[in-house]
Amino acid sequence: MEDIIKKIRQDAKSVAKTIVLPEAEDERVRAAAQVIQKESIAKVILLDKEKLDKNKIDKFAEEFYQLRKHKQITMEDAVKTVSMPVYYAAMLVRTGEADGFVAGASHTTPDVAKAAIYCLGVDRRIGTISSSFIMVLPDDTFGANGVFLFADCGIIPDPSAKQLASVAVATSGLGKAVLGITPRVAMLSYSTKGSAHGEMVDKVKEATRMVKEMNPDLIVDGELQVDSAISPEVANIKNKDGIIKGDANILIFPNLEAGNIGYKLVNRLAKARALGPLLQGLNKPCSDLSRGCTVEEIVDCVAVTAIRAAKEK
Predict the structure, then answer these.
(1) Gap between the Cα atoms of 13 and 307, Å rounded
(2) The whole model's pTM is what?
């Protein structure tokens, strides 16, 4: 586990990106900023609400107003919005003064996601904003030497088949860019290849078909129960002819409940390191944080965000 984390931090160090942390009031964020700077993982802009640049606020407000005036916001609304550190951070990224931002220690996921969507915009090639976690397990016999990506664990409560397909494509791209893995994607369900029936199963089947259409070269299989996805022994019984033979490294959950519960169970019971949630499907990279995050998790999210800024296209 530590080797993987060390490599992520080293890769981030080599690309020397600038990442904004807009929650200087949180002692964990301040401590993380010190670690990041000491280890040269990234250049850090630590934002204090009382010390934001007034000239930049005026500049950002004008641009934000142009972005959102179709929603009938006023210039006064725009000034008020970009005076909030999380929006100020997102505008620093939008204007190229920083490469990414990481927030969520003291903001909810909807707060961070809205700032990201409004300021960075949704990547039209993906069409859906979602989130993923890099899960690093102590047991390296699973996934890609102990590493998985779980999605979506934080954004879309009940994704459509099309949204689910977009989540799979976005997560696969992130895994390839950040971890250098060959994505092996399992579209999860309570059914394996027709062992059960229902609307939820049909949705996962359709999503799997759409993923193959969107990215014909991607190794993807579904619908799969999670044991068929991660256990070669079970796959040999339930999905003998499948392209995923118990060796999936990307798990796409059918809805937010399953994804959120799944990552937290693995995080707590298997003592896995959870990096994220990493917001994906945007024009520029950013990461959310669990409000229960540790200093080390903040550092790791900054490292991943820096790598994404360098490698994602």
Answers:
(1) 9
(2) 0.91
CA angle 93, 307, 43 (to 5 degrees): 55
| Residues 126, 106 share a domain | no
* Mean of pLDDT over the chain: 94
Kindly report the backbone phi and psi dihedral angles of residue 2, in degrees, each rounded to the nearest multiple of 5, phi listed first. Answer: -65, -30
What was the pLDDT predicted at 292? 85
Task: Tokens 């798990």: give the residue.
Answer: 251
Domain with 113, as residue range(s), is 1-121+298-306
Instruction: State the DSSP string of 268-302.
Output: HHS--EEEEEEEESBSS-EE---TT--HHHHHHHH
Name, in order, each residue with C-beta under 8 angstroms of 90's C-beta and a sequence gap of 6 or more. Answer: 101, 115, 116, 118, 119, 120, 286
H or E, element range at 78 = helix 75-82
Same-domain check for residues 128 and 115? no
Query: In the chain, which stretches have pLDDT less than 70?
Result: 1, 313
What pLDDT, on a 0 to 100 scale, did the predictor assign at position 194? 86
